[in-house]
Design a protein that fits this description.
73 residues; mainly alpha; 71% helix
């Protein structure tokens, strides 16, 4: 479980600093247009990432992660 928390922490760090190399590699005259492209990419990835996580958990659920799949005796 500590590995999951550690990975999520580093994903947040990556999300915070991940856009800096992209914006620094763009020419200053194109930065406004490319900011819109990067913003669209961020919005789509904000939707796709939870969708991918849902799909993985749907196919291979973690024990106790879904109350509807718990057996009752």
């Amino acid at each position: 479980m500590a590995l999951v928390f550690g990975a999520s922490f580093f994903f947040v760090v990556l999300d915070v600093v991940g856009g800096l190399p992209f914006l620094m590699s763009v020419k200053p005259s194109e930065r406004t247009e490319m900011s819109a492209v990067y913003s669209s990419f961020r919005d789509v990835s904000g939707i796709m990432t939870p969708g991918a996580a849902w799909l993985v958990l749907f196919v291979a659920p973690l024990p106790g992660s879904s109350p509807s799949r718990v057996r009752r005796s």
